[in-house]
Amino acid sequence: MLVGAAALLLLGGAVEWRASELAAQESAGELLISTFPGLYAWVLMVPLLAFGTAISAVSLRQLLLRRIRGAAGWIGLLAVLLVLGLQEAGRRVWVDGAQGEVLVRSGLLLPRSEANPLRDVEAVQLVEGVSRGAPIFTLSLRGERLYGALSTAQLRFTDPVAARVEAERWAALVGAVVREEPLTE
Predict the structure, then answer these.
(1) pLDDT per residue as tens digits for the range 81-115
(2) Which positions ≥6 away from 181 have C-beta within 8 Å?
(3) Percent of the chain scored above 70 by pLDDT?
(4) Distances from the Cα of 138 to the Cα of 92, 122, 148, 166, angstroms
(5) DSSP string, 35-64
(6) What angle, rounded to 10 degrees, do the helices at 72-89 and 39-64 form?
(7) How far apart are CA 69 and CA 8, in angstroms?
(8) Confidence at residue 98, expressed as pLDDT on a 0 to 100 scale
(9) The pairing of beta strand 30-34 with beta strand 91-96
C-alpha cells in the first residue's frame, strides 16, 4: 500500500506541476473552450485513481514475489489508464490577440499544441439541433484553412440566449461574423 501511495503522490505531483506550467504559458490569451475534467469530475476520478494505484501496487508486489493471482492488477491498471486517458483527451482552445493566433492544446502530461492564424477564422458558427428531444446549440469556429484539433473543437449549450452571448464574445475575440444555422424540419 505504501508503494501505491508513493506512486499516487508522484503521479499527482506530476499532473499538478504540468497543469500549472501549461496554465502559465496559456495565461496570455482569452479562453474559448476547455474540455478538461472539472471539479465535479475530479471528485469522481480521484478515488478511482487512488483505487487503481493501490490495486496496481499490491498486484505488482504479488507479481514480484511470483504469486500471480487473478486479474486485479489489470483492473487497477485500467482504472489508472482511464483517468489518465480522460486527462489526455481534454482540449483547451484560446485566442492570443498579441500574436494573432488561435491556439489549441490537447493533453496534459503529453501536451500537443497547434496554432492557427486569426485571419484563417472566417466565422463563428452557431448550429441549432435536437438532442434527446431537447434543443441544443453547438458553437464552433469555421474557416477553409483551419486544421487539426481546432476544426473539430466545439461547445454545446442548451440555452439559446447563453449560446448567442458566447457566440458574440467569440466573434469579438477572433474578429469574425456569427453565422447561425437554425433547426430545419
Answers:
(1) 888 888 788 888 888 877 888 888 888 778 888 88
(2) 125, 126, 127, 128
(3) 89
(4) 17, 17, 18, 11
(5) -S--HHHHHHHHHHHHHHHHHHHHHHHHHH
(6) 140
(7) 23
(8) 76
(9) antiparallel
In this structure, what DSSP letter does residue 177 have?
E
Residue whose C-alpha cell reads 448550429 in the numeric block: 127
Instruction: Name which of 103, 99, 73 is nearest 91 in CA terms.
Output: 103
Report whether 103 contacts 113 (CB < 8 A): yes
Specify the pLDDT at position 5: 65
| 126: nearest Cα among 90, 156, 84, 104 | 156
Q: What is the reported pTM?
A: 0.71
Cell numbers 485513481 correspond to what residue? Answer: 49
Q: How far apart are CA 36 and CA 15, in angstroms?
A: 13
Using an 8 Å Cβ cutoff, are 122 and 176 in contact?
yes
